[in-house]
């Protein structure tokens, strides 16, 4: 009910179209994107890029994910780019991301540079999420960063195809993977997609990132079965205590190829957008390890210097000037 009320409150703003579409020229090609900026958004705020699935557009994923609601509540911007028609060099006549090359990587980097110059986002809190093919481009961006733009990604129902091995990760990046075990488009256990080739299973992707980030298990639990359908979501969280890098895995039993949501918009036990933002909100490029905490807490006075720069000896429990 709370989410419904918020959507109704936001509908007038969405209806006037102030969130786009907008256009950006990259490599002499006009590209479309939607952008939601909360009122009075302070400088140094986060930005989330949300990528649509095959055949979709930025406006559609803006509507289906409702990230704008969370954006207004938590002071972060959301950008919803649109892929080109046959952007992956296919012949379907539908929008598709270029996950076998670097044209969309370059586009997103250029778009981010332009938005950064206008809004001064926090360069340490730039995130990417996406659904299906949008999840694939999120993985591709994480693996093909030429300037370590993205600090975390959260692909839903996406995967890593063999053809995406055009580049490999060059830096640690936190990852949230969400996938349904009954996904009939991108199989949870991996497979071979017609005309696109082999792709990794969701568990193998998680293991790959856990190993790359040198993480260990932090906690595991199951979400509350709020609709009593016996379809459980298992959550496993991994963490590198020294770097702060995280890998989270949401395994949705009997989950389909859909953006997970609670009733009345879905029949799942969680709202994926909310869980994704919860993950992003915990990411920082300045992590604190236990060792660092110990150093700060165990402070010791080494010497005392007076205003003339001379070392002086004083009795304990005396005021210092």
Short description:
The protein has 321 residues and is of the alpha/beta class. It contains 8 helices and 12 strands.
Task: Tell me what the structure shows.
With about 325 residues, the protein is α/β, with parallel strands linked by helices. It has a single domain (about 1-295), classed as 3-Layer(aba) Sandwich (Rossmann fold). Helix content is about 25%, strand content about 20%. The chain contains 8 helices and 12 strands. The strands form 2 sheets. It has a 10-stranded mixed beta sheet with strand order 1-2-4-3-5-6-7-12-11-10, with helices on both faces. Strand 8 and strand 9 form a beta hairpin. It is globular, with a radius of gyration of 23 Å. The model is unreliable at about 1-15, about 285-310 and about 315-320 (pLDDT under 50).
What CATH first level would be assigned?
Alpha Beta
The dominant shape is globular
The CATH homologous superfamily corresponds to Alpha/Beta hydrolase fold, catalytic domain
Largest sheet: 10 strands, mixed
Overall tally of structural domains: 1
Total count of helical runs of at least 4 residues = 8
Could you say what the CATH topology is called? Rossmann fold
Proportion in helices: 25-40%
How far the N terminus sits from the C terminus, by CA atoms, comes to 59 Å
Q: What series of H and E elements makes up the topology?
A: HEEEHHEHEHEEEEHEEEHH
Secondary structure tally: strands: 12
How large a portion of the residues is in β-strands, by DSSP E?
Answer: 15-25%
Class derived from helix and strand content:
alpha/beta
Q: If classified by CATH, what would the architecture be?
A: 3-Layer(aba) Sandwich
Radius of gyration: 23 Å
């Amino acid at each position: 009910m709370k989410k419904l009320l918020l959507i109704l409150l936001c509908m007038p703003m969405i209806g006037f179209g102030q969130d786009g579409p907008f256009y950006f020229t990259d490599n002499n090609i006009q590209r479309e994107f939607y952008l939601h900026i909360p009122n009075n958004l302070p400088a140094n705020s986060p930005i989330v890029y949300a990528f649509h699935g095959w055949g979709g557009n930025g406006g559609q994923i803006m509507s289906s994910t409702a990230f704008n609601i969370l954006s207004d509540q938590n002071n972060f911007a959301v950008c919803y780019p649109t892929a080109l028609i046959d952007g992956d060099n296919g012949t379907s006549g539908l929008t598709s991301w270029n996950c076998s090359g670097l044209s969309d990587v370059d586009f997103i980097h250029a778009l981010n540079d332009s938005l950064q110059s206008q809004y001064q986002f926090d360069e340490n809190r730039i995130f990417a999420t996406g659904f299906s093919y949008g999840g694939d481009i999120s993985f591709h961006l994480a693996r093909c960063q030429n300037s370590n733009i993205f600090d975390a990604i959260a692909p839903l129902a996406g995967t890593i195809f063999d053809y995406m091995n055009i580049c490999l990760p060059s830096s640690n990046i936190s990852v949230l993977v969400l996938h349904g075990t009954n996904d009939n488009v991108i199989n949870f256990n991996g497979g071979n997609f017609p005309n696109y080739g082999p792709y990794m299973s969701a568990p193998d992707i998680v293991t790959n990132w856990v190993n790359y980030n040198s993480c260990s298990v932090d906690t595991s639990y199951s979400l509350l079965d709020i609709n009593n359908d016996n379809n459980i979501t298992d959550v496993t969280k991994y963490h590198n205590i020294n770097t702060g890098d995280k890998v989270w895995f949401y395994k949705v039993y009997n989950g389909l190829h859909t953006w997970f949501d609670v009733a009345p918009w879905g029949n799942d036990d969680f709202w994926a957008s909310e869980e994704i933002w919860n993950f992003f909100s915990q990411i920082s490029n300045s992590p604190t390890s236990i060792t660092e905490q110990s150093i700060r807490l165990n402070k010791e006075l080494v010497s005392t210097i007076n205003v003339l720069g001379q070392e002086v000896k004083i009795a304990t429990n005396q005021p210092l000037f």
